[in-house]
What does this fold into?
Amino acid sequence: MSSEDKDEMVVTPWEVRGKVDYERLIREFGTQPLTEELLKRLESFTGELHLQLRRELFFSHRDLDTVLDLYEKGTKFVLYTGRGPSGPVHIGHLVPWIFTKHLQDHFDTRLYFQMTDDEKFLIDDENKLEDMTRYGFENALDLIALGFKPENTFIIYDVQDIDLLYDIALEVAKRITYSTARATFGFQDSTNLGWVFWPAVQAVPCFIHKKLTGENVPALIPAAIDQDPYWRITRDIAQKLGYHKPAQIHNRFLPGLGIGGKMSASEPETCIFTTDTPEVVKRKVWNAFTGGKGTATEQRKTGADPTICTIFQYFLYLFEQDDKKLSEREKRCRSGEILCGECKKELPERINTFLAEHQKKREKARDTLEKFHIKR
Ligand code: TYM
It folds into this structure.
């Protein structure tokens, strides 16, 4: 929900604004930092640390240690993540999904993926339900294009599959008071009734595995930290209902191409959609904020600051796999050896190579969509 001060940090499931202070979020949300020790433990299962862990793009968690303890003793876990389909997928959304796939591959676990057309309908007066539902199927193509295993991946389309969810949603909703929900989500008198109930629906996939298979195992949720309020209320009631508390691993936000904030579809010119054409990608990147100096001469002399440069963040998050090359780019930027124009030329090439492949796989996924549906 919105706040008056433009620079103030706001991180809710529906709005991310201002400069995000991740340390402060850990304190205020009451999560745990991802420690070296925990990363080592993860590495012992996966054989190598995933790029997103090495680069601290995932930075915080809840109960990841408990999940690994249980796993070591023979209790598996399931993965759970999702998407609010209010438009096309952007490359920021891919960040937690790429990591989720890494976990699915290494731990051989099921993934429950929730497509929340109902949420997106409720939270915005302008959104039509049929459009959200249609985007849900379109967005699922992006997920499938990343290579998830059909036998281990179960996509839930909320409106279509509500019969599977409703009994658990009721059990959850009955145990959360309005005052807790208001304090957690900032609901106001003008908030519609559907929105107030809705968080119970996002809780359901944390627990659905037991209903489907009889196995009571914890869910591990890879997602950006904006989704955390949902997990706070879900964790509060999980044990009362006889389930494990869901665990989380939180990623940072891929920034938009403008100044500050996360990549967000509400500002399309600062956002790379997976369906963008090469020309559009070039144009958007060319107009991106880099924080470079006023003139080439000045930048050659004093260098620039990659930590405030959006372009550098894209190499860091997604488009430079080689750690050495990334740190060379960083050094050369700081020393003024390369200028922003060079990075602005290289990045679209990388993005477009990725998107060309992704778009092909995305089209192919139309044939297999049904294999991933929870009710297949
Ligand atoms: P949504 O559609 O806002 O976001 C989908 C996923 O992408 C993450 N995300 C980002 N990650 C990195 N950089 C960004 N700029 C960025 N923007 C968004 C989100 O944290 C999310 O993981 N209510 C949810 C849908 C949902 C869900 C879930 C998400 C239902 N169940 C379980 C995660 C886990 C939503 O609207 O996500």
